[in-house]
Amino acid sequence: MENIILTVKGMTCMGCVKSVKNVLEPIPGVAVVDIVLESGQVTISFDPAKAGPDQFKSAIQDAGYEVVGNG
Ligand code: 9UX
């Protein structure tokens, strides 16, 4: 298992947090998604053999939020 932290812009309430969680959690290989609303930090624990950062970024962007960086 590997961890990545993405910084996401545009989440303004816990509903947004839930929306982002809901698009990431079903991705095969994703084990844990932890989101801090205030900082926009999205921590994803995943199996690198099955999923990766590009896929996470696309899913977040498709949900209507902006990925502004790693870490
Ligand atoms: Mo909260 Mo996010 O009511 O788009 S869900 S602002």
UniProtKB/TrEMBL annotation:
All residue ranges annotated as the HMA domain in the record: 2-68
Q: State the Gene Ontology terms under molecular function.
A: metal ion binding
Specify whether Metal-binding is a keyword of the entry: yes
Protein name, per record: Heavy metal transport/detoxification protein
Q: What is the lineage of its organism?
A: Bacteria, Pseudomonadati, Pseudomonadota, Betaproteobacteria, Nitrosomonadales
Tell me the keywords, alphabetical order.
Metal-binding
Determine if Metal-binding is one of this entry's keywords.
yes
InterPro entries assigned to the protein according to its UniProt record, in alphabetical order: Heavy-metal-associated_CS, HMA_dom, HMA_dom_sf
| Organism superkingdom | Bacteria
Family matches, as Pfam families: HMA
